Each structure stands twice: as structure tokens, then as C-alpha cells.
Amino acid sequence: MITAIDTNVLIDLFGADPDYGTSSREAIRSSIHHGSLIACEVVWAEVSTVFSSENTTRDALQTLGLQFVPIGVEASLLAGRLWKSYRQKGGRRDRMVPDFLIGAHALYQADALLTRDRGFYRLGIPKLKIIDPSA
Q1: Across the 135 residues of the chain, what is the mean pLDDT of every consecutive 10-residue run?
Q2: Can you give the residue range of the structural domain that contains 66?
Q3: Secondary structure, 3-state, the chain
């Protein structure tokens, strides 16, 4: 099974979040045990903000066995369609948000998405299997 991972779960782990750190760590371990763990460029970029250097970021993510898998054309176009639909339905975010790219990437490149932001993804991408470490 291929599991895409959202930024919030990685930040739980690397930031030792007192509320979600342990459950996120266990969900990551389980995902690795059951297959592979991937992330797109948006996640890599967002996670890099918690580290002191690009090399430290790269080392930490590679130590996890996290594979870099680009978003791709189809997922990028889907993210645009989802954002447009979201805005037409009254969504208040007024710019393209990374969540749409992360969700579309997971839909095209993985079997599931490991995230604590399950409500947002269920609204935009109901076919996407969500694994929520906080549930």
C-alpha cells in the first residue's frame, strides 16, 4: 500500500507535538510497515520550514524512508478544479491552497492520505481514503 503523507503529521513527529506526536509517529510506522510512504513537493517545502537547513530536512525525510513523488499534470489540474468548485460553493480561502495539491497528489499517486485534516479532504475529494492518526 502506498500512503501519501500530509505536512501536519510530519510536523507532529518532528516537532514532538504533545497532543499528536505519539499517534502520528505510530501511524507513520504503520504506513511504512504496510508499504511505502510518499510526499509531494508541497509537503517537502512546508516541512523544510521546521528545520535549520535543507540538508537537515533532506536527511530527516530520507531517514523516514519518505519518497519524493512529484504532483504531476493530472493531479495539478484536479487541484485547480477542486479549488474552483470550492470557491463557487462559497469557500472562503481566496488563493490556491496547498491542501488541494496534496489531496489531488494522494488521489493520483497513493492508496491513502495520512492526515489530521480529514474534514477538508472529505469535502473536496470524497473518494480519497483518509488515515487520521488522531482518530
Answers
A1: 96 93 96 97 96 96 96 94 87 76 94 85 78 90
A2: 2-131
A3: CEEEECHHHHHHHHCCCCCCHHHHHHHHHHHHHCCEEEECHHHHHHHHCCCCCHHHHHHHHHHHCCEECCCCHHHHHHHHHHHHHHHHCCCCCCCCCHHHHHHHHHHHHCCEEECCCHHHHHHHCCCCCEECCCC
